[in-house]
Amino acid sequence: MKLSQFKFKLPEELIATEPCAVRDESRLMVVNRKTGEIGHHTFKEIINYFGDGDVFILNDTMVFPARLYGNKEKTGAKIEVFLLRELNEENKLWDVLVEPARKIRIGNKLYFGDDESMVAEVIDNTTSRGRTLRFLYDGSHEEFKDALYKLGQTPLPPYIKREPVPADAERYQCIFAAKEGAVVAPAAGLHFSRELMKRMEIKGIETGFLTVHSGLGNYREIDVEDLTKHRMDSEEMEVTPELVDMVNKAKDDNKQVCAVGTSVLRGIETAVSMGGHMKTFTGWTNKFIFPPYDFTVATSLVSNFHMPYSTMLMMVTAFGGYDLVMHAYEVAVKEKYRFGAYGDAMLII
To answer: Where does the signal peptide begin and end (predicted)?
Structure first.
């Protein structure tokens, strides 16, 4: 497959900049791979397609407030710092991106907060834009993280062209988020409300969790036409024995296994074993999935509507079939579905 095959015309006004008022009342397009039929529903109606013993796999990663604004020492120049991950708890070392990168050198100090009480020193240049910062803070690690996160903003995707507001801290987060580490929300999971999950439980639908700490690589532009030459950024992930037992039992009982989101699909395929089963996994994945690809674990997929040329769109077409999914996207544009993390959802069965 070529990069140019994932182009489609997306009107700017269809990119959702605000979440749906109620999580489970966004729209849901249902795409049937066998018949090619496309149906239009409300997200909470997803429950009608599953029954007792079926399994939903969700990503329980938690997004942290990763975007900070500070000032450079002496010049006072405004610097944007994007926290990627903590490298060393004891020394308060963080892997970060900085903008504008050209203004920052090793040894520079950056000041954050109205009172400039949070100070960081640049100690390493890891990539063209990346840096390692050491935060200078005397309190405990818990106090430091608390202070750091109070300064941070919700890392909304770059296509949402507005400043974050306090409500984003809750809405750009799944209700089941539990393990901190992501800077990109697993958007398909944002549609699940407590009421919907309770109704699923009553119907006998099981929910299991894996963890994939989604990173900024999800938004990085692909700069090669030949997709086999693209390399995904690595993301930390974990598949527990509890999830493996749940999924493997469902597979043995011939039940449905629904992957909620492309991050979950990547995680499953990283931990796949023989005969459509899963195995435990703790580590990193840089798996890049695009058509054609043979999936053996997941029988259905929930995903939001993604941007042109994105790796997430490529994964969805690999699962649903390139022609059918690209046709469904044409229908979505015509029917004015909302695109992006705060947008509507698609269920492929």
So the answer is: none
